[in-house]
């Protein structure tokens, strides 16, 4: 069972999410604006936060920025705004996923489960998928166990959780052509129904984070991507 904070100024959206979340066995707390959400996060712990963008008092971006000052609780952004600019702004704040309205409540539950699965892996650094694994290529070093990336000895700051997941998966499958569908299914952890520009947005962010090593992520036109070290 997860303790979920649902933040949206539309009561019907909050009630819809509550209905499906409680049916799945989760506990739900509601907030109608960003100010209330920040206050609730300061006074109590949540497993995951579902946050709308356009809200009174304090918008979702500002609320996420403030929440990130004192907790790394996973955040799933829920918004009617589906432009790439909005998604990039959200992911740069460190959110874990972005869902565009109107949405499927069942898919939302799958996304929540996928995020929490990633969190459980991160909380278990001694797990077989993380144990003593470091990748190094020229001046790029990736520490899977600590979830850290270095370029020429300097730690790369500000990478989102999904950037790490995407990079780790591509490195583990380096020099292999990875289709868009394969990347989405393996990295996001569910069958993706919707706009696969989410993948392109994360690739763009990841390339920006890798700076001169962005060249290692090769676009395969009409197929997907390959992390190439040969």
How does this structure look, described?
The protein has 2 domains: 3-122, Rossmann fold; 134-227, Arc Repressor Mutant, subunit A. The protein is an alpha/beta fold. Helix 1 (11-23) packs across helix 5 and helix 6 packs across helix 7. Helices cover 40% and strands 21% of the residues. The protein has a 5-stranded parallel beta sheet with strand order 2-1-3-4-5, with helices on both faces. It has a 4-stranded antiparallel beta sheet with strand order 6-7-8-9, with helices on one face. The protein is globular, with a radius of gyration of 18 Å. The protein is built from 8 helices and 12 strands. The model has no long low-confidence stretch (mean pLDDT 88).
What would you say the CATH architecture of the largest domain is? Answer: 3-Layer(aba) Sandwich
Radius of gyration from CA coordinates: 18 Å
How much of the sequence lies in strands comes to 15-25%
CATH fold-level topology of the largest domain: Rossmann fold
Rounded average pLDDT = 88
Order of helices and strands: EHEHEHEHEHEEEEHEHHEE
